[in-house]
Design brief:
The complex is a heterodimer of chains A (256) and B (292).
Chain A: E1 5-16, E2 19-30, E3 34-38, H1 45-53, E4 60-65, H2 70-75, E5 79-82, H3 96-101, H4 116-128, H5 144-157, E6 162-166, H6 174-189, E7 193-197, H7 201-207, E8 210-214, E9 218-223, H8 224-227, H9 230-236, H10 244-254
Parallel strand pairs in A: 3-7, 3-8, 5-6, 6-7
Antiparallel strand pairs in A: 1-2, 1-4, 8-9
Helix pairs in contact in A: 4-5, 5-6
Chain B: H1 3-8, H2 14-40, H3 43-52, H4 54-63, H5 67-88, H6 93-114, H7 121-126, H8 134-163, H9 165-170, H10 175-197, H11 202-205, H12 208-216, H13 220-245, H14 249-267, H15 273-291
Helix pairs in contact in B: 2-8, 2-10, 2-12, 2-13, 3-5, 3-6, 4-5, 4-6, 5-6, 5-10, 8-10, 12-13, 12-14, 13-14
The chains are: A alpha/beta (256), B mainly alpha (292).
Chain lengths: 256, 292
Amino acid sequence: MINAIGIDIENVTVAYNGRVALHSASLQLKSGTVCGLVGMNGAGKSTLFKAIMGFVKPVSGQILINGLPIRRVQKNNLVAYVPQSEEVDWNFPVSVYDVVMMGRYGYMNLLRMPRPLDKQAVRESLERVEMWEMRDHQIGELSGGQKKRTFFARALAQQGTILLLDEPFAGVDIKTEKMMINLLMELSQAGHTILISTHDLASITTFCDQVILINRSILAYGATSEVFTEENLSRTFGGSVGDFSSAENKINEGSH
Amino acid sequence: MDLVQWFVAPLQHEFMLKAILVSALVGLVCSALSCYMTLKGWALMGDAVSHAVMPGVVISYVLNIPLAVGAFVFGVGSVMAIGFIKSKTRVKEDTVIGLVFTGFFALGLVLVSKVKSSIDLTHILFGNVLGISDADIIQTVIISIVTLVTLAILRKDLILFCFDSTHARSIGLNITFLYYVLLSLLSLTAVAGLQTVGIILVVAMLVTPGATAYLLSDRFDHMILIAMASGVFSSVMGTYISYHIDGSTGGCIVVLQTLLFVLAMIFAPKHGLLVRTNKFQTVSESVTNEKS
């Protein structure tokens, strides 16, 4: 299992209405890796996630997860995807518990009746992110960090071996970020493959053992210590960067 | 006349008994669906579909086939037309919706005026539950059963589809299928509602009870029960009132629904205007107390 390939992307090109968003991307992530995905806004990070999830069809190339095409992977509950959360309707009449239970639908029968097994998985997931006491709250009553933890708990409840996280640390408190990083490290030790995009360059060196630098194509990819160099980062953000903090400034500019 | 008489006397007429039962059933079904419509943000879509079924209704009359068939074809067809025009032109979605449903509706008006048949335009526009035929009752019952059974089976998948279609996709649910299920149910219930309150007001049946319940609950299961209770109540009471005041049945039903919404808006325990004002006062009071 340790040397198996979790995510295998071969020569993938994605285009929207003829405009190339991601050009000829190739990479192999071994099971058990935590891999950071770094690039400016519009560099193709979300596109890469969507291509892996099969939401956009690549013009060319193929993507395999644990050696399987994405449809099979989804049916077997192998992958959990946590997109950026701006689009969630926080007034929707669902509780924290309901949301996390949605992570279990793939395991249930047509009527989605939760079995004791599902309830237990939901409880364990909520306890891991310290949200069990908040389970009956409507999701709009939560703080930013609690919202992120709820959706993270849903991904945990899916019990997949592949975890895709798009900007999980955007707008969260330090406690939540630390808790999530600890959980990610636990998961990777248990053999999960994790791909995580983040603007928090400083924290990447602390928990990612691999890094992908991306700007419409993969600029560099490999072990964090080798890839995460000033030269590579300045190529990624299109200018010279003196240190990581000015790199972050560049990113923030990119987000306007 | 005492209260018992007020309720019992109309039931001596067979047409009133039928009207009350049919409008209660329609109120129940439309209200259940209205929760999904309001949460998915499909109110405008509901308005569009309910108007766009008009040519289908007329054609069904002429061909002597069930209204639901023609309405279904034109209801789903109008939404596909909206999707097609939106994807192929630069015109914005709300414009496309406005354009397509009025176009379909106008076509229906032309058809009504030109085909020789016994169709009464006012019955289509404003409903005719007091004079509903047995064939129409059977059709309404079938539509209601199909809708309620579908909602019962796919309830959780449809909630997930409304709440988070990305997650639905990522666990391998077929969201195109769910989209068309919801759309088909909308077209079918539009026909059921059309016979009770008419094309023009049917959108109220498909939106208002859901909106009222949305203000009264933070749980989907409670919301759908509250919506159905308010829908059935308005339908039954509206039919009674219309009998006693000799007024438009559809009008009475929808006015009642709107009143219930206004009551919920003001008095809802958590999201009502009164509570919000109180909260504001409590906050400002506590601020004043801290200062003093």
